[in-house]
Amino acid sequence: MATLEIHDLHVSVEAENGPREILKGVDLTVKQGETHAIMGPNGSGKSTLAYSLAGHPKYTITGGTVTLDGEDVLAMSVDERARAGVFLAMQYPVEVPGVSVSNFLRTSATAIRGEAPKLRTWVKEVKGAMERLNMDPAFAERNVNEGFSGGEKKRHEILQLELLKPKIAILDETDSGLDVDALRQVSEGVNRVRETGEVGTLLITHYTRILRYIKPDFVHVFSGGRIVESGGAELADKLESEGYEAYQTKGGVTA
Amino acid sequence: MADNTPAGSTTDGAIQVGGPQQPIDARVSAPASYDVADFPVPHGREEEWRFTPLERLRGLHDGTAVANGGGVKVEVSAPAGVTVETVGRDDARLGRSGKPVDRVAAQAYTSFEKASVVSIPKDAVLTEPVTISVHGEGGVAFGHQVIEVGAFAEAVVVLDHTGDTTLAANVEFLVGDGAKLTVVSVQDWDATAVHAAQHTALIGRDASFKSVIVTFGGDLVRLHPRVVYGAPGGEAELYGLYFTDKGQHQEHRLFVDHDTPHCRSNVAYKGALQGKDAHAVWIGDVLIRAEAEGTDTYELNRNLVLTDGARVDSVPNLEIETGEIVGAGHASATGRFDDEQLFYLMARGIPADEARRLVVRGFFAELVQQIGIPELEERLIAKIEAELEASVA
Fold first, then answer.
1. Residues spanned by the domain of A190
2. Could you give the maximum distance between any two Cα atoms of chain B, in Å?
3. Which of B36, B174, B230, B296 could make an SS bond with B264 (beta carbons 3.0 to 4.6 A apart)?
4. Mean pLDDT for chain B?
5. Cα distance from A166 to chain B (closest Cα, Å)?
6. What tens digit of pLDDT does each residue of A164-192 get?
7. CB contact under 8 A, B348 and A160
8. Tens-digit pLDDT profile for residues B3-27
9. Is the alpha carbon torsion for A81, A87, A91, A97 positive or negative?
10. Residue limits of the ABC transporter domain (chain A) (predicted)?
11. Does A97 touch chain B (CB under 8 A)?
């Protein structure tokens, strides 16, 4: 069973007056089949955790370890992490001019699976996944994220999640900017992948809204660059009614 | 400046409607002429020279470059039925498409000794292309070529430039009534070559002219594709593709002169740049004169900047002197392939070098498909692949 283990992770970014520490000792274990919600106020470091796990060059790891089934994730390049089974659904997916969605998906699937998918089954696979996400087939011929609406970008991220079948899926604020219908469809996509039992999900969100559709097994409150409280789904209800204020003093958010 | 606009890039554009005080032709520093003496030596601030590093022209612009016999070797291979002649300066068939528009083109016109004249007879439909290979042998040369296509004939002409030279040239295309001419000019020079040329097409009644300019090599390449219409119903498609590497200056200055009613033009140029001081310049001048009613024109330039340190100047100019037209438009955009795009593709398992290739291939593919000659498309894609292999680490 695939397990992602994060131990005492410290991460800095370059700021105007030298490096600034954002993550200050994160400990978290995510196993295949589990869903962990990470909730916290803006600026608490949630997205930094997501991008650090995926290997974004902006973030410098200054301490701690991340392993996937014992393999050192931090020693891997960005593409190696993806091929090892780490997937990041981005909050702000990037436009890639000149590359069509269909070409992108196929190149990506070929890289992740280690061989080009057979054309006939692939076409069917993509078409089916797009239909389930309520995406227009014409979408496949558009350039990656170019001119996509907020909802289209998020559907496209979840489409990739469905096709690439990672071991660990990190969903960074996938709910942001979605209307109710889009949120429901995107959540259903995530749930289809979760139901396979083969993915460990790290659901990063500011709001409890998405948790109505995606039921977490664990909820962690993130503040001041670390996890300050962990619990079950009931912790989300508490956050819904009380907000993050209690944690912001307790967690010692730096101004 | 927007995030996706590389530093130093300009995408200025202008659409003028109504009578401009200074039409495109009047913006240049001297009127067109066959004689180099009619042009002052440029100092670099003139509208038509302001993007060009004059010091790298090796004297083509100031008269100090002198032909030394070891410039270029020109070989023409043509299918049966096509006449290929080498003629002297006094041949009456030279200079009919129009006059040189800048000092370097006029220098070439004043200085060439022999010209090649390729004649495709009336009604001939060639199944094989005519190939004019221009191979640089290190010296200075002035060239002149005329390609004349008779009425209702159809031909493909490939101009293949290789080797090292300092070359200024004029190439004329005379497209007869109802004829179809496709010209492919490939600038596959060594990294040291300097090449400045004016390509002038005179398009007959209901004739079609397609120009495909492919610039990969050279230290400095400055091409001036121009289209004029001799009679109504003419159509011009001008496509271009360039891959500007470290230190290279590649400049394409187009001019479509709609001086005749009911003609069409479509311009699409795409370029990729990478490396320090890679500099691409694209000027797209389209003039719709008052008498050119029923004109339909569109021009587009797209640039993809792959690394820091490259510069693009893209300047579309559309001047419209009559409202009685079918359509007129232009578009110019310069985007960059940046670290975030690289991260996004790599985060989907795609290795870095493959990610870059994917983007560049996709960027050019759309244009290559528009060219409509399958053998040429294959050659261009192979060329792009080779360029990517050689330079995209």
1. 3-96+149-250
2. 65
3. B296
4. 90
5. 10
6. 999 999 999 999 889 999 999 999 999 99
7. yes
8. 344 444 455 555 555 444 445 555 5
9. positive
10. 4-249
11. yes
A140–chain B Cβ distance below 8 A for any pair = no
Contact B341 A54 (CB under 8 A): no
Residue A62 lies in a domain: yes
Please, which residues have CB within 8 angstroms of residue B182's CB and are 6 or more apart in sequence?
Answer: B155, B156, B157, B210, B211, B212, B373
* Element at B282 (helix H, strand E): strand B279-288
List CB contacts (< 8 A) between B344 and chain A: 90, 93-94, 96, 144
pLDDT single digits (tens) B191-248: 999 999 999 999 999 999 999 999 999 999 999 999 999 999 999 999 999 999 999 9
The token duo for A191 is 């749930």
The CATH number of the domain where A70 resides is what?
3.40.50.300
Q: Which residue from B minimizes the CA distance to A114?
A: B349
Look at strands A218-223 and A226-231 and give their pairing: antiparallel
Q: Where are the domains of chain B?
A: 14-336, 339-393
Residues of B in contact with A144 (CB under 8 A): 344
User: What is the identity of the amino acid at B146?
Assistant: V
Say if A222 falls within a structural domain.
yes
Residue A140 placed within a domain = no
Q: What is the gyration radius of the CA atoms in chain B, in angstroms? A: 20
Both structure tokens of B203: 């398009």
Strand A218-223 and strand A35-39: the pairing is parallel
8-state DSSP, A74:
G
Q: Do B207 and B177 contact (CB within 8 A), yes or no?
A: yes
- Cβ-defined contact of B351 to A96 (cutoff 8 Å): no
Number of structural domains, chain A?
1
Q: Count CA atoms closer than 13 A to B318's CA, side-chain side.
A: 20
Position B10 scores a pLDDT of 52
